[in-house]
């Protein structure tokens, strides 16, 4: 929206604009990589994806540090998280929240068909961070579904439905691709953040599966998920493919760098020059980079 339209908007339209701007500010402050990929989205899905990630970031910050730094106990954090979830559900029904980030998300949920079936698993995984310090294979899978795969499914609802008169269900192919891409993203983050998660947060998301000799198996799973997701990207709407390709390729690069280094090395990152090259490649319409299947 132009500055002129922002100045002339009134009432709910002005509030909607302020909420969307608040979500965009959260994303800009927290994630340069995500901000880069988001700019490759077309104007139709872009604000909605920002709204989803802004809400996810706020929930994540409740359990990952700032709330504790403010003096909240785990019980108090859970209460705040419960209230946030209820506000999201209520706002999605009402179409309004006094919390600007929740209001922005609720507008996206109402337009794009994001319901409690996706919201509830996300908040369940956030609560897990308050109680579970070491995961096994089963709890890992449940956590990844709620913390990452449903975010991919929420974004897919946006890709398919933003601007449409009525939301429709995405195809099974796209659902599988969204879930596997989200799972790959999360497992990459678990591997590269393992030292921080252990020493600062006191959590082990990978559990015994990340023991000696098993790290390559996790990377094999990540590569298989990335390869499966890549095959579904061409079926996405045209104004979403470049951004999803850029995000996919960034995590494929991270996975390759993780495979090339030893566990315990400094946190793996992708240099800005490489990020720019991957974004340019996606912008030019190249297919997603191949991962080891």
UniProtKB/TrEMBL annotation:
It comes from the Bacteria. Pfam families: SQS_PSY. This is Squalene/phytoene synthase family protein. It comes from Microbacterium yannicii.
